[in-house]
Design goal:
single chain, 0% strand, flat, disordered N terminus
Amino acid sequence: MDVAVESRVGPGRIGARRKLQAYLALTKPRVVELLLVVTVPTMILAQNGIPNLLLVLATVVGGAMSAGSAGAFNCYFDRDIDRVMNRTKNRPLVTGELSDREALVFAWGLGVASILVLGFFANWLAAGLSLVAILLYVVFYTLILKRRTPQNIVWGGIAGCMPVLIGWAAVTGSLTWTPFILFFIIFLWTPPHYWPLSMKYRDDYKSAGVPMLAVVRGRAVVGLQVILYAWATVACSLLLIPVADMGILYAAVALGAGGWFIYETHRLYNLAIRHEHVSPMRVFHGSIAYLTLLFLAIAIDPLLHF
């Protein structure tokens, strides 16, 4: 039987392995992976050294559950859109590998588990922030903003900033200016990360009726907005130097990687205004590399003590 046909024969007729893979896909593991990339460095910075490894494990597991729960809820509420878009047509609720009920029960269970893990093995401030993150992504972004405004990813991106607050709170039991600077770095980074992706899949979003900026505005406008947010992201990252007493390594990476990120956004814009072929995914993947390098420097810098 053809795989595409087989995947749509119903959730009750697939094997255990396929079922587990479907549940994993529901959590959007690439998004979870990116969120965890920022959590551990934040914990190292909060500790100014290596935190308790059991605390790190609990925070990573609880954070992964939280992000996975939000992703599963998103797949449930957006299943009508996912059926229209080519980019999402292989998600489990579209293929029939999972039923709507299975997805909803899984999302609730994972969300509750994340709060309990963080509450009992980290602290209840971290657990409360986890709950806020889920609500922001599911209610504020998915149910309210996504289908109503081209600014959806700007304000909806707040949910993706929460892992740094959760990681800091897990170590210190409180919040200071430093985690909020980390928060705003990710907040400002999200549009130049996601808008190039929306340029690539503009027709998908248009057919689904989702008013992404790339759908309602031309490439030049999107490119300019990407530049402005990239500059703001790099400027915000430099605030960490005086506030968190970051050293030479972080300063070098923030300036070097930040300059490269800004260059790529300018390149995208220049191609767009000349009506030449653009490669928005180059900026999309570049933005991930930039954030990874920045938070790797955040993790290493406190360990060098110079």
